[in-house]
Amino acid sequence: MKQRTDDIYAAPLEEMIDFQFDERVVSVFPDMIQRSVPGYGMIISNIGILAGKYAQAGSHCYDLGCSLGAATLAMRQRITQPECDIIAVDNSPAMIKRGRELLALDTTPTVPVTMICADLLEVAIENASVVVLNFTLQFIPPAERLALIERINAGLRPGGVLILSEKIAFVEPGRQQFHEELHHDFKRANGYSDLEISQKRSALEKVLIPETLACHRQRLQVAGFSFADPWFQCFNFASMVALK
Ligand code: GEK
Fold first, then answer.
1. 177 assigned to some structural domain
2. Which of 5, 64, 108, 121 has its Cβ near the most Cβ atoms within 10 Å?
3. CATH assignment of the domain containing 97
């Protein structure tokens, strides 16, 4: 599959369909996520660095909602502890198909990777030292989020980490507008038109549900993490690290 520029929302759409991670999205995904998520490349590199630091010998590292496996590959390059493997999960067959092709091109010899096409809500998390939810929890129904975070905490070894990146919301309308406008400026600067920005926003409205940093922090605490701190924020996008 050839790497393409994202023009999915460039022409006016007669009917707005909820956003789906289908073949069309997969074919433009690396371009789409780079141009839409401020700091994406930096977050991916730092997931590698965090995994290099927190992966424990003989444990599993999970990349939940792995898409094409960018975070998986970054972790694979940095993990030096013996007997670790990475379990990468996504429920989009098109993502997993392309992700496996990209994985086959990666020549990093050491850490074995298994890419699984499954609902992450149904995947067992066990003997884990690093769990990554890189812009994935936002697509999980809010009522299911606490149980998932509790299950991740239960599956982590002591000293293990959850890396949680999300689009975030703000309680005060003025702050919400401030960050949202800057994000739209970021997308415009990356070549998206106002039509593309507004059509994509409508398509995502019912499927991507952001929460406040305070809400994430509280859930992580309730789930049993000893602390959770944001290590990255740019406009309405943030990444937190939670330590068990
Ligand atoms: C990256 N982490 O490049 N089970 C499994 N996968 C799911 C589920 C679910 N229930 N719901 C959504 N997904 C990646 C980027 S993208 C973020 C993550 C974005 C998957 C979905 O199929 C998609 O591939 C991914 O979560 C979200 O580091 O596109 O904004």
1. no
2. 64
3. 3.40.50.150
Contact 168, 178 (CB under 8 A): no
Closest ligand 1 atom to Cα of 119: 4
List residues near ligand 1 (CB under 6 A).
21, 33, 65-67, 70-71, 89-92, 95, 119-121, 134-136, 139-140
In a domain, 111, yes or no: yes
Distance, in Å, from the CA atom of 89 to the CA atom of 120, rounded to the nearest integer, reads: 6
In the chain, how many domains are there? 1
- Kindly report the three-state secondary structure assignment for every residue of 95-161: HHHHHHHHHHHCCCCCCCEEEEECCHHHCCCCCEEEEEEECCHHHCCHHHHHHHHHHHHHHEEEEEE
What's the token pair of residue 48? 């590698």
Q: What is the pTM of this model?
A: 0.94
For ligand 1, what atom is nearest to the CA of residue 68? Answer: 3
* Domain range enclosing 217: 40-169+207-243
Output DSSP code: residue 10.
Answer: S
| Tens digits of residue pLDDT in 54-109 | 999 999 999 999 999 999 999 999 999 999 999 999 999 999 999 999 999 998 76
Q: With respect to residue 185, please indicate whether it lies within any of the assigned structural domains.
A: no
Ligand 1 closest atom vs CA 89: 5
CB-CB contact of 157 with 127 (8 Å):
yes
